[in-house]
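Suppose a colleague, Dr. K., hands you the sequence of a protein chain of 101 amino acids and asks what its three-dimensional shape might be. Before reaching for any lab equipment, you can write down a predicted structure in token form. Begin with the sequence itself:
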Amino acid sequence: MVAIRNTDLSFDSVIGYEADDGKLIPMVTEAYMRVMVELCNEKFRVNKERTEAFRKALLGSFKPQQVQSSGPCAWEPIEQRRARMKEDGLRRQAEADSKEL
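The predicted structure, expressed as tokens, is then:
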């Protein structure tokens, strides 16, 4: 399990305090609170986009790479490689047997 943390989108603001008698005293207006809520909602939207982009990149990294070249370094399925290696081995064995005669 991996945890990924990012403080890019953090938001802190003092909006009030608790008086000695337990009463909550606001330090900002209701209009300013609305602005802060909108700002936080936008940060949540950006975070969701980033999370989705990261998820797609992470899942994409587990898919086999498609190699464009067709040379000896090109990726080939395991079954195809086994068949090719077997054919190569049989060919070399036949060549070696023909040289012994």
